[in-house]
Structure formats: structure tokens, C-alpha cells
Amino acid sequence: VATTVYYAAASLDGYIATSDDNLDWLTKYQGSYEGNGAKPVEGGYDEFYEEVGALVSGSVTYEWVLEHIDIPQLGGKWPYSGKPYWVLSSRQPRVLEGEDIRVVNGSVRDLYEEMSSSAGDRKLWIVGGGPIASQFAAEGLLDELWVTVVPVVLGDGKALFDRPLPGPPMQLTDVLPRPSGMIELRYEVRRDA
Ligand SMILES: NC(=O)c1ccc[n+]([C@@H]2O[C@H](COP(=O)([O-])OP(=O)(O)OC[C@H]3O[C@@H](n4cnc5c(N)ncnc54)[C@H](OP(=O)(O)O)[C@@H]3O)[C@@H](O)[C@H]2O)c1
User: Fold this and answer.
1) Ligand 1 atom with minimal separation from the 148 CA
2) pTM (2 d.p.)
3) What is the rounded distance in angstroms from the CA atom of residue 127 to the CA atom of residue 118?
């Protein structure tokens, strides 16, 4: 069974985008870790991505990727080739020919089995946004939260989650300071009362 992981970068005040879907604060962020406490840990995205079997996002996130495909981080082409990418939408967003992009409309509870089995025994990456992650969490289908905190304060924007998370507090499982000055926090989402 696939593990569902919501892996996203958030501002220090908990937003994953500005309210008009700008991510410059993340894509253009340049910082460094100058502390003398915990050692910085290299790696991050590439190692995570290797463990991913399938991806799921809302339509706004999907269309953001399509519109920004030329930024250096995305490299001018669909960055998720070879892995199923599920887009939740009530519309018919443009789909790139030749890529495994599956547009679906419905409750994540009903779609979960299909999405999860497409990931095999690897991770189902919940790319975002907050509404999607919150739907998984509300159904008890979110296993882990990996959040990379970027030391930028936006003041307003689209939140990491769009509603309170049910259940007991999450369990911290890892803390990884990155050389960039970002810090990755990993939590296991617990459902037992
Ligand atoms: N910092 C990061 O790491 C990070 C990560 C991910 C995303 N982001 C950014 O964060 C922002 C997220 O935007 P967002 O929260 O507005 O959007 P989103 O979650 O990407 O998309 C929301 C939309 O998806 C559709 N949808 C949601 N649930 C559905 C369901 N169960 N069935 C069918 N359709 C469903 C609806 O649109 P329609 O029905 O109209 O299609 C809804 O308006 C974007 O700017 C994105 O680029 C940042």
C-alpha cells in the first residue's frame, strides 16, 4: 500500500503561495545556513522524488506547473514524466499529450484506491494545494507531512491546509536543516485518539 505524503514548501507563516499564486518567494529564494547547532543536511527533493510512485494535486497547482514550465526548477518540460499525475478538477484543464495526466472529479475517499494503487508500494505525493491535503486529512488518508519551511513572511496567501486537521497532534519524525537556510520538518499524522 502506498504511503500518502503531503510534501510542500511553506513560508514561515504557513503559506504555500500568495493569494494570486505567486511562488517567487520560493523559486527565487537565496539563503544559507550559518548556524553552529545542527549540521546542515544535503539532498531533499531528488531523493524524495525517487520514492514517489504517483502524484496528485488540485487544478490550480497543476495549471501553475503548466504555466511555469520554463522556470529553471522545472527545466522547460513536464517534470513528472513516467509517473501518473492525478489532477482533481470539475473542469477539463489542458492535458499534455504523451504524459500520464489523469483528470478526475470526485471525493478523495472514492478516488483513493485507484490513486494509491497507481503508486504501487511507493509514495503517493500530495503536491497541494491546501484544499487537497485537507481533503485527504479529513478522510484519514494522509499518512505524512513533509514541510520545508522557507524563512520568508508573506502575511497572507494560500495556507498549507485550508481547515483544522482532525485527530491528535502529529508526531515529529525528522528535522533536516538544509544548506539553503530552509528547514525540512517531517511529521507522521496520527489518527488514534
Ligand atoms: N509551496 C509549495 O510547495 C506549493 C505546493 C503546491 C502548490 N503550491 C501553490 O499553491 C497554490 C494552490 O492553490 P489552490 O489552493 O487554490 O489550489 P489547488 O488545491 O491546487 O486546486 C484547487 C482546485 O482544485 C479543484 N478541486 C479541488 N478538490 C477537488 C475535488 N475533490 N474534485 C474535483 N476538483 C477538485 C477545484 O477547481 P476546479 O474544479 O475549478 O478545477 C479547486 O478550486 C498554487 O498557486 C500552487 O502553485 C505551492
Assistant:
1) 3
2) 0.97
3) 16
